[in-house]
């Protein structure tokens, strides 16, 4: 696909400005790129956490090929909610609140940290790292982690570093070569879900082997004051490898191919159901890098499941995250999750939507005088988030051939690489057989609806360069002039 892909959309690095923000306040974590300028070439900007953030650079079709063919560079997560947990009781705090096993948690390891409500629903999740003795770092767990920390007198401290740290994500077959050239460091030794320190231009950075697209990927964590110059260096170094900066549209899409259901993209947090937490937040406002809408007010709930916010909340099993739960310790939601495990057999699979049925939906838009099916935005339901500046979640009911309910479909995207409409399906065991045909009910209640055929496919859908298990020894080690 696109044999000359590497040579397309070259960026004039002389126009990449790390000091000035023409016209608008751009994110302090990314330099100004002419490709993202509003009203030039049709590019758009969105308000992300009060900062003007590009919706796309070279277009979502071009950008979404990058993690398959060359390398994507994303700064969409900035500013990231980042919290250091430090002190003699740091491990105790994690063990009493996270569902994960923190006894088997060596320094240099990444875990997928989950925090649940007493009813088993997911409050929040994100990266959890053991960075030093009695020191951990949690991403995207605030402000709920702050609330939990306030419940007991721990001999430890929480330190918010959300605006002091940048996070860049690189994914694709050339990302390791680019990072090794940028750091002057052989990074082949970093195993999947591991990290270690390196440097860029003499500044300390943390390199993690981890990513959402499913292909070979790494993250770079560094001090925010060097974010723009480090971003520019990565971008400049990656030019000869066909690197693509990716923006909001594309970042939200790579999670589906990679098999990572994501909070605030595909489903909503259940933390607003915890009345004690809501009261805590009123008295102790969270002042980190991002301001969260911890309620469901102002969120648009679409899809055939109806507007009840509860239909857009999930427990770990429904998200394919049951493997993260360790049962050998007490944590909020343990009893409820144990009951769910014993009585509810729901897991997440990949659904591929039927092309003929999709064509009928689009064709209905062009028949004068007749009712039409709900418009199916491309490239994803989340397109409206970027274009209209609000949160939108779309979730649909899934049935079998006899009309029996199997579960929910969520996170629909169009994959340009695979030329397929895909979504996650949180389905019961009867609906998870590979190749099985199911029916997704498209359209809100009270409107013209259609049962769209879909087949259960491999999960994750990405089937090449898989980060977990990819042999980096197939990539030549760097040779540096010392």
What's the arrangement of secondary structure elements?
Elements: E1 45-48, E2 51-54, H1 60-63, H2 66-69, E3 71-74, E4 82-86, H3 90-97, E5 110-116, E6 122-132, E7 135-139, H4 144-149, E8 157-160, E9 165-171, H5 175-183, E10 195-200, E11 203-208, E12 217-223, H6 227-238, E13 243-246, H7 248-258, H8 275-283, E14 300-302, H9 334-343, E15 346-353, H10 355-363, H11 383-388, E16 392-399, E17 405-415, E18 420-428, E19 437-442, E20 450-457
Parallel strand pairs: 3-13, 14-16
Antiparallel strand pairs: 1-2, 3-9, 4-7, 4-8, 5-6, 6-7, 9-12, 10-11, 11-12, 15-18, 15-20, 16-17, 16-19, 17-18, 19-20
Helix pairs in contact: 5-6
Domain GCVT N-terminal: 48-262
Protein name: GCVT N-terminal domain-containing protein
Q: Within the largest sheet, what's the order of strands?
A: 10-11-12-9-3-13
* Major sheet details: 6 strands, mixed
Query: How does CATH name the architecture of one domain?
Result: Beta Barrel
CATH topology of one domain: Elongation Factor Tu (Ef-tu), domain 3
Radius of gyration: 22 Å
- Uncertain residue segments: 37-43
**Please, what is the CATH homologous superfamily of one domain?**
Aminomethyltransferase beta-barrel domains
Individual helix count: 11
Helix content: 10-25%
Q: Can you give the mean pLDDT?
A: 90
Which structural category fits the helices and strands? alpha+beta
In CATH's first tier, which class of one domain applies?
A: Mainly Beta
Shape: globular
Tally of extended strands? 20
Give the N-to-C terminal Cα separation: 39 Å
Strand-residue fraction?
A: 25-35%
InterPro entries: GcvT/YgfZ/DmdA (IPR028896), GCVT_N (IPR006222), TrmE/GcvT-like (IPR027266)
Pfam families: GCV_T (PF01571)
Protein name: GCVT N-terminal domain-containing protein
């Amino acid at each position: 696909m696109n044999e000359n892909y590497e040579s397309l959309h070259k960026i004039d690095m002389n126009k990449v400005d790390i000091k000035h923000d023409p016209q608008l306040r751009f994110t302090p974590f990314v330099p100004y790129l002419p490709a993202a300028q509003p009203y030039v070439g049709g590019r758009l900007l969105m308000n992300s956490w009060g900062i003007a953030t590009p919706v796309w650079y070279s277009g979502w079709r071009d950008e979404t090929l990058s993690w398959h063919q060359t390398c994507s560079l994303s700064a969409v997560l900035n500013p990231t909610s980042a919290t250091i947990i430090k002190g003699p009781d740091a491990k105790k705090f994690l063990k009493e609140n996270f569902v994960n096993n923190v006894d088997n948690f060596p320094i240099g390891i990444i875990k997928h940290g989950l925090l649940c409500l007493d009813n088993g629903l997911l409050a929040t999740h994100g990266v959890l790292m053991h960075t030093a003795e009695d020191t951990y770092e949690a991403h995207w767990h605030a402000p709920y982690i702050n609330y939990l920390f306030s419940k007991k007198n721990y001999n430890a401290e929480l330190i918010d570093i959300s605006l002091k740290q940048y996070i860049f994500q690189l994914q694709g077959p050339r990302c390791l070569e680019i990072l090794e050239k940028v750091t002057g460091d052989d990074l082949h030794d970093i195993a999947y879900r591991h990290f270690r320190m390196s440097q860029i231009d003499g500044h300390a950075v943390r390199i993690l082997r981890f990513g959402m697209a499913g292909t070979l990927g790494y993250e770079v964590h560094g001090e925010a004051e060097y974010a723009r110059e480090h971003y520019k260096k990565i971008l400049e170094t990656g030019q000869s490898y066909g690197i693509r900066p990716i923006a909001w549209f594309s970042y939200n899409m790579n999670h589906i191919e990679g098999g990572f259901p994501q909070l605030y993209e595909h489903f909503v947090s259940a933390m607003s159901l915890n009345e004690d937490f809501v009261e805590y937040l009123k008295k102790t406002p969270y002042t980190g890098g991002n301001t969260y809408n911890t309620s469901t007010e102002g969120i648009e709930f679409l899809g055939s499941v109806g507007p009840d916010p509860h239909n857009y909340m999930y427990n770990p099993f429904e998200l394919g995250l049951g493997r993260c739960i360790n049962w050998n310790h007490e944590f909020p939601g343990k009893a409820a999750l144990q009951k769910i495990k014993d009585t509810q057999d729901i897991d997440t699979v990949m659904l591929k939507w039927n092309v003929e049925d999709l064509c009928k939906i689009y064709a209905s838009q062009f028949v004068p005088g007749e009712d039409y099916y709900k418009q199916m935005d491309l490239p994803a339901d989340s397109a409206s988030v970027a274009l209209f500046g609000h949160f939108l979640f779309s979730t649909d009911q899934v049935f079998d051939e006899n009309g029996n309910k199997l579960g929910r479909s969520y996170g629909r995207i169009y994959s340009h690489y695979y030329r397929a409409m895909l979504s996650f399906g949180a389905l019961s065991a009867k609906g998870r057989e590979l190749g099985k045909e199911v029916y997704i009910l498209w359209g809100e209640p009270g409107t013209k609806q259609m049962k769209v055929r879909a087949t259960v496919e491999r999960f994750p859908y990405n089937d090449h360069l898989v980060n977990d298990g990819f042999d980096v020894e197939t990539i030549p080690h760097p040779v540096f002039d010392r």
